[in-house]
C-alpha cells in the first residue's frame, strides 16, 4: 500500500514461495492461500500475516478417504496428510463474505473448507467442510451468505501438474444455513 505524504510504500512479505489467491474480508483485512498449503490472514497495517494456518488442506490418500470408520489422527480438525501430490494441497481459491466472519478456502483434497475469522486479526477457526471432488479453482460467497459457488476442474487452472480423474469440470453450488445474529436475542 502506498503512503502518499511520506512517498513510501508498504511491501507485504508472504512466508510462502508463491501466493496462489487472495481476497479482501473488509477494508482492513484480507486472506491469502499459498502453494505450500498455508492459509494466511493479513492486516493492511502489517508487512507479515497476522495469523497462519499451515497445511490447511492436507492431501489424503484414496485409501484414507474410503475408510470412514477408521479413526485417523487429526491436525487442524482434519486428517493428517498422506502421500499424494503436493499440488492437491495447494490452496487455489479463497473467498470471504464481505464484512462478516465467514471465509472459505479450496484446494484439490476433496473439500471446500469454511472458516470463522476472529475479530481484529486474532486468528481463524475451521467451521466445517463441504465435500467437492476436483481442483477448486475459484470460490465466491453470496452477499447474504445463503450459498457458496465453486469453480471446479480436473486440473488446476494455471497448469497440468495435478489431475483428479473422477472430477468433472464445472460449477458447484452449496446452500449454506447461517445463523442470523438477531436470532440469538
UniProtKB/TrEMBL annotation:
SMART domains: WD40. GO terms for molecular function: U3 snoRNA binding. The keyword GTP-binding does not apply. The keyword Lyase does not apply. Its main location: nucleus. It comes from the Eukaryota. It holds the Pfam family WD40. It is found in: Nucleus. InterPro entries: Rrp9-like, WD40/YVTN_repeat-like_dom_sf, WD40_repeat_dom_sf, WD40_rpt. GO terms for cellular component: small-subunit processome. Keywords: Nucleus, Repeat, WD repeat. This is Anaphase-promoting complex subunit 4 WD40 domain-containing protein. It comes from Aegilops tauschii subsp. strangulata (Goatgrass).
